[in-house]
Amino acid sequence: MAETRYIGIDGGGTKTVCILGDAEGNILAESRGESSSVKSRPWEDVQRVLLTLIRDVLYQSGTEMSQLGGIFLGLAGSDRPEDRKRISDWLQTELPEGVPITVHNDAVTALAAGTWGQKGIALISGTGSIAYGFDPATGGFVRVGGWGYLLGDEGSGFDLGRKALVAVMRAYDGRGEPTALTRLVLERWSLQHPGQLINTIYGQDNVRTAIADGSKLVMRAAADGDPIAVKLVEEAIQELEELVKTVITSMEKQQPIEESDSHHLAENTIPLVITGGLFSDQMFENRFMQTPLIRSGMFDVRLLERPPVIGAYLLALQERGFELTEVMKQRIAAFVFRK
């Protein structure tokens, strides 16, 4: 009988990564593609990206569709029931009958990758932002933020990039203070003056990704001491701090109340997995680490060093009842991912 294999997919607002492995922790194939966020991409594009990646890892590993034992997808903006059902129903028409399909938010995969499935909180600040908590003692998830670029995503790359562009336009009008962001933005898009940004930004194939990319300019300007950029960075950090605080409060409410247990969740050290494009900037990470919340000693802060897609693969195995062993961890950690 052919060996059963499992697929994990992590899809954010910028890119999607797909891996295929066996039940022993051996990762056999990896493939990458564009964003698969159902809240920022046309549905047809999401279908194309996901199906292309699935077919690619099957081909690379010499795996037949009939060998699939499960697939776990952690996709940005996909933890609402209607989103999960839409993706699951569609995939059931593309995969062999009976293949287990689980769809959740990409924060879940990041958390699983950072804690090997243990209790903790994931804070993602990439194109979008979200905080997610999980406590095995209750089996409950707590989700805060992640409402998309129109309704939320405070403290994200998009939010920071959009505010940078607003600051440039306000300075251009004379309504705001001059900022070094103007020069950086004009250089980034090879423009002569800010008035040209209208056609440039609105003409982008993926406006959300293009604006989120502007967050890198904010980091550069803040590192050079530009007051406007520094203020924007501080605002973003405060927003992310608030996400984590709210998760803690909600997780405490889920704790069973026992007379013999006087310790609350907030009084114990909790793994906090931080990941996303903004945290890849050393200055931003350092400033976040200096916030009162983080310096309180409440958290074991871990910058996610393993790709979030590993969490999707782990969850695909856990869904089928496999227990993670130290040998499996070593095999998974040994896989060399593409840059």
Automatic annotation (TrEMBL):
Residues 7-316 form the ATPase BadF/BadG/BcrA/BcrD type domain. Gene3D superfamilies: 3.30.420.40. It holds the Pfam family BcrAD_BadFG. SUPFAM superfamilies: Actin-like ATPase domain. Coiled coil: none annotated. InterPro entries: ATPase_BadF (IPR002731), ATPase_NBD (IPR043129), Euk-type_GlcNAc_Kinase (IPR052519). This is ROK family protein.
